[in-house]
Amino acid sequence: MKRLLPLVVPVLLLWYGCTTATDKRYFQLHIPPPSSPSVTSPLPGKVYIPEARVDKIYEGYRLIYRYSPYQMDYYNYEFWIKKPGRMISENIAAYLRERGVFSRVFEKKGDEDPDWIIESEVTAMEEFDQPKAWFAHLAMKIKVIETRSKRTLVTHSFNRMDRLSRRDSRLLPVVLSEILRSEMSKLTALLRKKIAE
Question: pTM here?
């Protein structure tokens, strides 16, 4: 029995570690399509959506949470399914496509030249934890550029912290997605107004 003990203990420790390990969870941003078709006509021209630029702090796969402007950390078992820059640009493109904002929306440069480019920059994408409530924090700048003139037609910046309904990190992607949807709605209204001038 004494000879078996050195073999049995590591096996038991390994088994215990495997059975108590936390499962990894993967999340993505998602803006649902509109419940009814758009009644407005598409804006003229084709638009290209390059991948969003993301502050280096936020460009990894792990979800970030913050306690104050001075202290932040990463979740060990909660990950984005794609890098944030890719998720943001894909959701912007899907929003514009599903709502018929432009006649054509694409994310990869091909043979055709775009009439517009929508550039986006993410400066915060995190959970902000306070003693009484947790918040989803998304800060971005979005620019619509006319490709021929290189003129910036519209710039839309926001820095929002929307409360999670309960202290649960699984709600973070849902609230971040809703912030992005709401701000894209504002951008679209600004864009239609500017082009109509």
Answer: 0.86
Q: 172-196 vs 84-98: helix axis angle to the nearest 10?
A: 50
Whole-angstrom Cα Rg for the chain: 22
The CA distances from residue 60 to 83, 86, 87, 126, in Å, are 6, 11, 12, 12
Average confidence score pLDDT of the chain: 89
Residue 131 forms part of a structural domain: yes
User: What CATH code is carried by the domain that includes residue 50?
Assistant: 3.40.50.10610
Give the CA angle between residues 67, 177, 104 to the nearest 5°: 145
Main-chain phi, psi angles of 184, to 5 degrees? -65, -35
Number of domains the chain contains: 1
